[in-house]
Amino acid sequence: MDDTGAIAHAATGAEVEHFDVLIVGAGISGVGSAVHLQEQCPDKSFVILDAQDHFGGTWWTHKYPGIRSDSDLYTFGYRFKPWTAEPIATADKILKYMGEVIEDHDLARHIRYRHKILHANWSSADQAWTVEAERTDTGERKLITANFLWMCQGYYRHEQGHTPEWPGMADFKGRIVHPQTWPEDLDYKGKKVVVIGSGATAATLIPAMADDVAHITMLQRSPTYFVPGRNVDDLADQLRELEIDERWIHEIVRRQRLKMGQLFTRMAFEQPEAAKKELLAGVSAFIGPELTEKHFTPRYRPWRQRIAFVPEGDIFQKVKAGKASVVTDEIERFTETGILTKSGEALEADIIITATGFNLCVLGDIAFSVDGEPVDFGKTITYRGMMFTGVPNLVWVFGYFRASWTLRVDIMGDFVCRLLNHMKRKGVTSVTPKLRPADEGLEPLSWIDPDNFNPGYLMREIDKMPKRLAKPEWQHTQDYWAERDTLPKIDLDGPEFSYGGKVTARETEAA
């Protein structure tokens, strides 16, 4: 143990446990990654740490009414676990699905809840990470060493959502609520509600609450693209009538939906006006062209921000029925009784819900260091959006915006396991991405190209994110359809990888 680990050990008085791999997070990414590790690297010991008291990540911490996926579960679900319910699923069904995965693969014994990681230091001398975690229920400190860190904790802070500061917020006599920290005692029946925001969360909350409130209004600064449609999959249902095995149904429907996604994404870039027309036609079928033009025609081209699926067009049905309304305007100030818009409209409210996004969190806000020197990830260059220059034995699962997040969990699982097995065969204990001489003079660019994708939560704190270079291997291309072919073919002995350490004869024999 190097000096940093020794100091931490002395300070906590804790015994140190060791694992080959430490997976951070028991959400959709962590559970899937653990299955791949267990199946493809059965010789590796591992542990999963999560700060919450239950598995599920987003699907456990978010409690607001109607919470559901905004992409289909045939692609959001894992490739190894068939999805058998409706394509767009509520949080309880996703948690049930994840629970079945944990049970099927005997993962519960590997998961430790209520463990919040405070800092992690890589020791080149020890060829290992020393991780200090705090028990959120007792305050007890725990020390764990691991050869490899698999970061699956997501990209935003679970404990607090993003709420802008508007003039007069303190004057409002009602309640202001962020969906991410939904209070259990919130009684909205018969109340007037204003939801600030126009994304997937607002589109979920409004139809879920509309029948119980006096009235609900979506106040948006600018419109968002949605895809309304039936929450069924005819192909899956037809295959079930033929008594096809669910594993085949899952794979067939998954491939079909991925192909449709690929074609539409290509249209959005190559024929943006045609893509826009198709999306708006779907909305207009529910509420007519006038309201579509006024409140649901975005100023940006499709796929510059995420497009959410709206099952059965439920939010548009509530608008058409008069149970919900939409105001497209900016906020001048909060008042005692609601919100005054810049155009002078007064929106009365008993409850104001700020569905205004996330606070970005880079690798769990953990204090990382390498040989005692703090790591500023904003100054690293990313290798394919999953590893970082100068940081050994660490990967971060960051999924897709234009396809289901979990698709990358699967293909990254294959890559990481292939890398770990490759290191074992080489007899080395560390791997670090490094720039090739020809790449060192390239200008560092922001994590993503804001001209192609620019959600607010990323743009607000983009400087905290690792940088990219103008080459595919040094950026997260966000192109699943390319990565599913390129990632399995990566040359692990290529110049982008620097290997270090040597496995001792005893360790080799044990392996």
In terms of topology, how is this protein built?
Layout: H1 3-12, E1 16-24, H2 28-40, E2 46-49, H3 58-61, H4 73-76, H5 91-104, E3 111-112, E4 115-123, E5 128-135, E6 141-151, E7 175-177, E8 192-196, H6 200-209, E9 215-220, E10 226-229, H7 234-241, H8 246-270, H9 272-295, E11 308-311, H10 314-320, E12 324-328, E13 331-335, E14 338-341, E15 346-348, E16 351-354, E17 367-370, E18 373-374, E19 382-383, E20 387-388, E21 394-396, H11 406-426, E22 430-433, H12 456-460, H13 480-486, E23 497-500, H14 505-510
Key structural traits:
single chain; 511 residues; alpha/beta; FAD/NAD(P)-binding domain; nine-stranded mixed beta sheet; 31% helix; disordered C terminus
Short description:
The protein has 511 residues and is an alpha/beta fold. It is 31% helix and 21% strand.
How many strand elements?
Answer: 23
Low-pLDDT windows of residues? 1-12, 505-511
**CATH topology tier name of the largest domain:** FAD/NAD(P)-binding domain
Continuous helix count: 14
Q: CATH class of the largest domain, please?
A: Alpha Beta
Report the principal-axis shape.
globular
Helix content: 25-40%
CATH architecture of the largest domain: 3-Layer(bba) Sandwich
Provide the gyration radius in Å: 24 Å
Strand content range:
15-25%
Strand pairing plus helix content: what structural class?
alpha/beta
Distance between the termini: 22 Å
User: Mind telling me the CATH superfamily name of the largest domain?
Assistant: FAD/NAD(P)-binding domain
Q: Overall mean pLDDT score?
A: 93
Domains (count): 2
Largest sheet: 9 strands, mixed
